[in-house]
């Protein structure tokens, strides 16, 4: 039997102090209106009460630990709620946001450092601040930072992020790619399509930018974890491979078949379908998939280990995804 802990790499914390920082600032109302348009009134009516019901799990360490124990999770990698990105704020406010997020997340995790590791934030809308924000997160003892799939007017392939990728590679920082908001906007404003379709789309687009632009060629040591199993990309990567082989424009930016880069990335297991999870493990490799629950939101897995077990992976693969891979990535002491 393995001695590796069970590690959930997709768990969130809510930080009211960040919302207090941005409330009332120019642009705040417009950002809220955009979010409302993208999600639609029915989704907002459900999401508000859902979050309120989970406030203690999102903020109270004792309640978090009880929930982890009930799930059979030994360690969580805790990242701020993506609602805290606020990529619309100016540079001065952005620095306050990332410092507050990094320090508050570190304080939350430091209460039980053997069970909680943390990630900070980086203001992608201001690339010149990205390295400083990453360094600040690492100085707090965090394992890395969480980023969205894009910032307004900038894709992850933007050359302005090159210093950030360089620094992340140098330091071995973990980059947790977790989208917030889909640019398909009102096309997804009913039936919670903004999340069910939007999140997988954003994951696939962001990863494609990293792959096709050559970011992963230039920075092969990057430690990127894609939330939601990487979205649609891993199970539809054959289309990318075909384009790379058949078209000069598609193949101009990266050196190898797009599918080969899946084995340079990490993916959480949160795909909500055992057959899709098996295909993710096949496409990326059992050593590249990590247990993820999206704790404690309603689009997460209440029993992440049970969801993993439902995929009926070989025992060694099951154990790798359950915790061995993440324990190695986070340099956890085996327990």
TrEMBL record:
The organism's place on the tree of life at top rank: Bacteria
Keywords, alphabetical: Lyase
Domain annotation Amidohydrolase-related: ranges: 7-332
InterPro entries: ACMSD, Amidohydro-rel, Metal_Hydrolase
Family annotation (SUPFAM superfamilies): Metallo-dependent hydrolases
One Pfam family matching this protein: Amidohydro_2
Full protein name: Amidohydrolase
Upper taxonomic lineage: Bacteria, Bacillati, Actinomycetota, Actinomycetes, Kitasatosporales
């Amino acid at each position: 039997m393995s001695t590796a802990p069970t590690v959930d790499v997709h768990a969130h914390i809510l930080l009211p102090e960040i919302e207090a920082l941005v409330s009332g600032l120019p642009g705040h109302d417009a950002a809220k209106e955009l979010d409302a348009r993208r999600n639609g009134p029915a989704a907002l009516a459900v999401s508000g009460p859902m979050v309120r019901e989970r406030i203690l799990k999102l903020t109270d360490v004792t309640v978090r630990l009880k929930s982890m124990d009930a799930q059979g999770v030994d360690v969580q990698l805790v990242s701020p709620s993506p609602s805290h990105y606020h990529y619309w704020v100016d540079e001065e406010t952005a620095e306050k946001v990332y410092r507050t997020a990094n320090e508050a997340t570190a304080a939350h995790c430091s209460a039980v450092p053997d069970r909680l590791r943390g990630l900070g934030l980086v203001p992608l809308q201001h690339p010149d601040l990205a390295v400083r924000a990453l360094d600040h997160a690492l100085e707090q003892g965090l394992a890395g930072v969480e980023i969205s799939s894009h910032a307004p007017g900038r894709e992850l392939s933007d050359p302005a992020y090159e210093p950030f990728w360089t620094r992340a590679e140098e330091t071995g920082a973990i980059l947790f790619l977790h989208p917030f908001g889909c640019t398909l906007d009102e096309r997804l404003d009913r039936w919670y399509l903004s999340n069910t379709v939007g999140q997988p789309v954003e994951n696939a687009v962001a990863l494609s930018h990293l792959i096709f632009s050559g970011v992963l060629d230039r920075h092969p040591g990057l430690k990127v974890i894609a939330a939601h199993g990487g979205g649609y990309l891993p199970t539809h990567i054959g289309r990318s491979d075909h384009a790379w082989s058949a078209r000069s424009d598609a193949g101009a930016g990266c050196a190898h078949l797009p599918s080969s880069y899946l084995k340079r990335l990490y993916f959480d297991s949160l795909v909500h379908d055992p057959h899709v999870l098996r295909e993710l493990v096949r496409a990326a490799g059992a050593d590249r998939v990590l247990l993820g629950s999206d704790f404690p939101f309603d689009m997460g897995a209440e029993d992440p280990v049970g969801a993993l077990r439902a995929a009926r992976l070989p025992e060694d693969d099951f154990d790798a995804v359950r915790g061995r891979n993440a324990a190695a990535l986070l340099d956890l002491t085996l327990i």
